């Protein structure tokens, strides 16, 4: 049974105290920066874990004036849609209501999951938000100076900026195919539980100041194409394009990710980087953290594609138990990832069992680990 730590008391509580009883998950995310996106990601994990255990869930989002931007980035990150939170009053007779909010945030009384912030190196400001402004990095306040008159430009400043190209422009590489193979499940809603398979979009995002280590919308950083994960150093495998030259092709299906706080990072890589830390611990999105997530995701997708060519074998009982024990223990996703690393390196495990294990765990993780099935070796 899934147990979570109630942030009000520090004590574990049952996320679904009544078997098969409805649980309402209500997200409180007033902004659109990466900290608020992480809040929504943790709620997505909670919904997936509850549904894997057979619990029906009503998922709601209480957002602020930047809710549209938050929803767009959430879709890119493979987060399932949440309903707008109405004035629910007594609700629908839920057995449990769980509020998911940023650490130190406000929420109605009830069981609460507090999500630690996302930070940039050397700053306590959340990635994607300018300190004190409440606006994402790269977005200026729209109101003018007091008195309603436009500010006079400083001639010196004007001269110094003449040779500086405007930021926020970049090529838009294609998006990932977004289909999960192997279990007969599409990359959208998966299996009997109706879980999101975690659509992954290619980067296509402009560079934003304040992002770590040059992860700023350069082609080759995104893994966005099936069978061709991006390479560190700004060059895409097989593309022959140097860093800084955008791909000429348009995204398939007309989809693209907006210039929100994702800041040019492949959404699937960002999702894994955020999952690698427990939600109670802050995340520092330094270049080496994102690089490790990118390498791990590319390696696992390639391995899963190879294992899929071998005869299928069931998930070993002890492996399934360890996976469930991990995510039932306050959504301990880092422990889930550790189990997968062990399965990857276990010499006596059949490849078919490795494949089924990764496909099973991906119902929680939403990383599209089976995306590269059928891609050229």
Kindly list the characteristics that best describe this protein.
8 helices, 5-stranded parallel sheet, 11 strands, 2 domains, two-stranded antiparallel ribbon, alpha/beta, 377 residues
Describe this protein's structure:
The protein is α/β, with parallel strands linked by helices. It has two domains: 3-119; 189-278 and 287-365, no CATH class. 28% of the residues lie in helices and 12% in strands. It has helices at residues 34-52, 67-76, 155-160, 267-275, 287-307, 317-328, 333-345, 351-365; strands at residues 3-6, 11-14, 23-29, 57-63, 83-84, 96-102, 111-115, 118-119, 189-190, 195-196, 283-284. Helix 5 (287-307) crosses helix 8 (351-365) and helix 7 packs antiparallel against helix 8. Residues 174-237 have a biased composition (Gly residues). Residues 238-254 have a biased composition (Low complexity). Residues 151-161 have a biased composition (Basic and acidic residues).
Brief digest:
Residues 174-237 have a biased composition (Gly residues). The chain has helices at 34-52, 67-76, 155-160, 267-275, 287-307, 317-328, 333-345, 351-365, and strands spanning 3-6, 11-14, 23-29, 57-63, 83-84, 96-102, 111-115, 118-119, 189-190, 195-196, 283-284.
